[in-house]
Design goal:
alpha/beta, 277 residues, OB fold (Dihydrolipoamide Acetyltransferase, E2P)
Length: 277
């Protein structure tokens, strides 16, 4: 029987399955962390490439929606706020509990009697006890500078009056009581209203562009996968050694019998005589 025939026993087949499952799981977890690293790198590249761009008129940059490659680009638009302000709660900023304040900006265009509607994230207020106090938005024509952001997905939950769970233009416009007009598919993160930050609101900090730990986590999971394979091999070799004893090659070279000398012969003769007496 092979020295490693025990590997076909039920016990060792079960161990093989367990170690294989561990190794495969670690490989997939490493691949997941790698994909998160790539996503983080792509997001950081967008911030680094677009965040400090010079503001341009919004119509010169985008039309109806925000392409993925233009997120964080700086644009300028003129219009007037309309409807009620809307709050997005539980959106921490730099670790602080915060509520983001949204409003709808109506952009009047010559060829559109209904106007164009753009959702604006004006800033944020700290969350404390009770309802947050929202400063009024400026009345009349406003020159707004902001950064392009893609619209968030819809949320099926019903939010309280004056609140939304996601920054989705249709949902925000409905919560603000604004009807009619063409909604821009995306929103603006305001940086200035008429050349100054929004009064009474905190500005948003620059996004964090650190690479994070996803890459190191990926390699750690892959090391764990390799460790599972190595661990199984070590256990198998140890079992084979215990079952088979010390291998022959470990016993050392065979000893050559020593040649008997005359002294040995005399000693043997004396021993024989003593035994006869």
């Amino acid at each position: 029987m092979s020295r490693y025939g025990f590997l076909l026993s039920r016990r060792w087949l079960g161990l093989a399955v367990i170690f294989l499952v561990i190794a495969v799981a670690c490989v997939f977890l490493g691949a997941w962390q790698w994909s998160r690293h790539e996503d983080r790198s792509a997001a950081n590249a967008l911030v680094n490439g677009n965040y400090d761009s010079a503001p341009q008129p919004i119509e010169d940059v985008v039309s109806d929606a925000v392409p993925a490659g233009l997120v964080w680009r700086s644009v300028v638009v003129e219009g007037s706020y309309t409807g009620e302000q809307v709050v997005v709660r539980n959106r921490p900023v730099d670790g602080a509990a915060a509520a983001r304040v949204l409003a709808v900006l109506e952009v009047h265009e010559e060829d559109d009697d209904g106007g164009r509607l753009v959702v604006v994230d004006r800033g944020w207020v700290p969350l404390g006890e009770g309802e947050p106090q929202l400063p009024d938005y400026p009345t009349g024509e406003v020159t707004l500078a902001g950064r392009l952001r893609a619209a968030e997905g819809t949320d099926e939950r019903t939010a309280p009056a004056g609140q939304v769970y996601r920054i989705e233009p249709d949902t925000v416009a409905e919560a603000a009581g604004v009807e009619g007009g063409e909604l821009f598919d995306g929103y603006l993160m305001a940086t200035a209203e008429d050349g100054a930050p929004a009064t009474g609101l905190e500005p948003f900090p620059r996004p964090d562009t650190s690479p994070g730990n996803h890459l190191s986590y990926a390699f750690q999971w892959w090391v764990f996968a390799l460790g599972a394979v190595v661990g199984y091999v070590v256990l198998a070799r140890r079992e084979a050694k215990e079952l088979g004893g010390v291998p022959e090659r470990a016993a050392g070279p065979a000893r050559t019998p020593r040649r008997r000398t005359d002294a040995d012969e005399e000693d043997a003769l004396i021993d024989a005589q003593l035994q006869d007496q």
